[in-house]
Design brief:
The structure is a single chain. It is built from two helices and six strands. The protein is mainly β and 105 residues long. The protein has one domain. Strands 1, 2, 3, 4, 5 and 6 form a six-stranded antiparallel sheet that branches. A hairpin with a 2-residue loop joins strand 2 and strand 3. The longest helix has 11 residues. It is globular, with a radius of gyration of 12 Å.
Length: 105
């Protein structure tokens, strides 16, 4: 069975959508960058559906970027679907210190 890290890494490499629970809320997101922040595995997601404690803006909004620790995600699975993003990668420099994989186009 693949780890959460492996599921997210594959989703980045193949532009798949991630479904997960984070802080008791269902999130539907597209991962853009994966690596570590300090000693923890972390990823930059663009959330376009599901629930959020801060609320979601319309698809394409720069306010939908989420920087989440991998070990705080549960019930993680991926699927093919339409890719969602915003024109500005607003947090990659602060979200992940050591990048393992990221979207390049």
């Amino acid at each position: 069975m693949p780890t959460t890290y492996e599921i997210v890494k594959d989703a980045i490499q193949n532009k798949k959508i991630i479904h997960a629970i984070y802080k008791s809320k269902e999130r539907i997101m597209c991962p853009h960058c994966l690596g570590t922040k300090g000693s923890r595995q972390q990823t930059l997601f663009y959330q376009f559906a599901g629930e959020s404690s801060t609320g979601l803006q319309p698809d394409g909004s720069a306010n939908n970027w989420r920087c989440l620790f991998i070990d705080e995600l549960s019930n993680v699975w991926s699927e093919a679907g339409n890719w969602h993003t915003a024109p500005n990668h607003s947090r990659p420099n602060t979200c992940v210190d050591n990048v393992d994989v990221e979207i390049t186009d």
